[in-house]
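Input.
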Amino acid sequence: MPDFTNPEWWAQVGQFFASVGWNLLTVAGIIVGAMVVAWIFQRMIARIVTRIVSGAKDKANVDDTMALDRSPLAAVRLVQRTRTLGSILRNIVNVSIVVIAALMIVNLLAPTALGSLTLLTAAVGAGLGFGAQNIVKDILNGIFIVAEDQIGIGDVVDLGLATGIVEYVSVRVTHVRDVNGTLWFVRNGEILRIGNMSLGWSRVIIDLAVPADADIPEVEGAMLEAARGLAKDPKWRTRILEAPEVWGLESVSGDALVIRLVMKTRAGAKDDVARELRMRLKNAIDGLGLTLPQLNSIMLTGLEGASRVRGANPPKTKPTQIAPQAAAGAVWKPKKKPRGAAHPAPAPEDETP
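Output.
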C-alpha cells in the first residue's frame, strides 16, 4: 500500500510521469522530424521530376505530356523514365525514413528490447528475404532497365519470353502485347536479354530468286532502279535513311539465282518499307519478262548478322561464262538464249570431223 503522506513517494511518481512525458515528447519529435525529412525529400524529388518533364514539354513545344506522342520519341521516353525513377526514389525514401524512425522509437522506449530482438529480426529477415528474393530480383532488374532506357512504351521488343509492343514498364513487370493481341506480363527478373527493334535504325533485306538463265547485271540494275525510285518517292523518302544497295549473288541452285537487296530504314518503318519494296521489285522483274520462283525477306542472325551489321559494298563484277570442255581441238561458243523464248536453243553440233 503506497504511503500517500510520504513526500518521497510523490517525488517518485512525479519523476515517473516526467520521464514518460519526456519519452512521449521525444517520440512525437522523432515522428514529426521523420515527417519533415520525408516532406523535404518528396519536394526535392518532385521538383526534379517536374523540371525534367517541363523541359521535355518546352523543348517539344507542347502543353500536355499526352501531346508528346506527336513529338520525338526521346522526349516521351525521358518523361516516362523520369517519372518511374521518381516513384522509385519516393518509395525508397519513405521506407527508409519509417524504418529509421521505428528503430529510434524502440531504442528510446525499450533500450534492451532492441538487442534481444536482434536474433528474431535476423531470422524473420532471412525468411522474408528467401521468400521474396524473386520480388527483389524483379525490382532490381526493373530499376536497371528503366534507368538505362533499355525499353520504353511503344517499342517493339523481343524479350525471349514474349515478342511484341511494350504497353507498360514498371520496376517489377513489363507488359508486352504480341501480334495476336495477347497481353504478356513478363517479370523483369526473368528477362535475360532484350532485343529492341525500335531504337536507331533497321534494315530491310530481301532475297530475290530469278531463273538460272537470267542476265544478272540486268536484273541487279532493275532491282536497284526500283529501290531508288522508292527512296525518292515523297511518301517514303522520310522513312529511308540511306541509298539502297545490291549485295550481289547470294546463292546459286539448279533452277534459281538468289540476289540480295538491302535498304536501311527508320526503326519503326521497316515492315511498311519492305512491303512496298517487294511490290516494286515484283513489277520490275515482271517488266523484264522473268518469272519469280520466290521473293523472301531475310532476318540475319548469329555470326552472319553480326558480320553484316555495318553493311557491305561488294565489287561490281560481270559473270564469266565458262565453256564446257569439248573434244580435242574443238572450239565451242555458247549461243545466247533469246529473251522470252519458250524453248531452249538447240545444242551446238560437234564440229569434230
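Confidence is low (pLDDT under 50) at residues 65-71, 305-317, 322-353.
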